[in-house]
Amino acid sequence: MDVKLVDSELKVMNVLWREGDATAKHISDVLKQETGWNMNTTYTLINRCIKKGAIARFEPNFMCHALIPKEEVQILETEALLDKIFDGSADKLFATLLGRKKLSKEEIGNLRKMVEELE
């Protein structure tokens, strides 16, 4: 996937990922509640996502469908974060995350299990 979405476009995509196919009006209503955006702002962002190939539009009622899965975007955004902030180093990212939060025994166990599965 070569689609690069900015934060505002990701807010539109998150509505579709969370709720499934939706009309542009519904997306606009949700984002008005969540962000205070007006309808024109949301429609502009939806159209940008359509042009980028992230959303398909079909009738009736300007129905929107996400063309890219959330997991794919999460992977790309994580890789971009690693490269931009942590010199491509996953261990530096995890060290930062783990150093800032007190983890429960369950969370530590989950992390151990993930690491063991990688080995």
Written account of the structure:
The chain is mainly alpha-helical. It contains 6 helices and 3 strands. The chain has a 3-stranded antiparallel sheet. A hairpin with a 4-residue loop joins strand 2 and strand 3. Helix 1 packs across helix 3 and helix 2 packs across helix 3 (39-52). The two termini are 28 Å apart. The relative contact order is 0.12. The model has no long low-confidence stretch (mean pLDDT 91).
SS content category? mainly alpha
The unreliable regions are none
Spatial order of strands in the largest sheet: 1-3-2
The percentage helix is 55-70%
Number of helices: 6
Number of strands: 3
Q: Which H/E pattern describes the elements?
A: HEHHEEHHH
Would you tell me the overall average pLDDT? 91
Largest sheet: 3 strands, antiparallel
Q: What portion of the residues fall into strands of 2 or more residues?
A: 5-15%
Rounded Rg:
18 Å
* Tertiary shape: elongated
Distance N to C terminus: 28 Å
Write a concise synopsis of the structure shown:
With 119 residues, the protein is mainly alpha-helical.
Question: How are the SSEs ordered, and which strands pair?
Answer:
Blueprint: H1 7-19, E1 22-23, H2 24-35, H3 39-52, E2 55-58, E3 63-66, H4 70-85, H5 90-100, H6 105-118
Antiparallel strand pairs: 1-3, 2-3
Helix pairs in contact: 1-3, 2-3
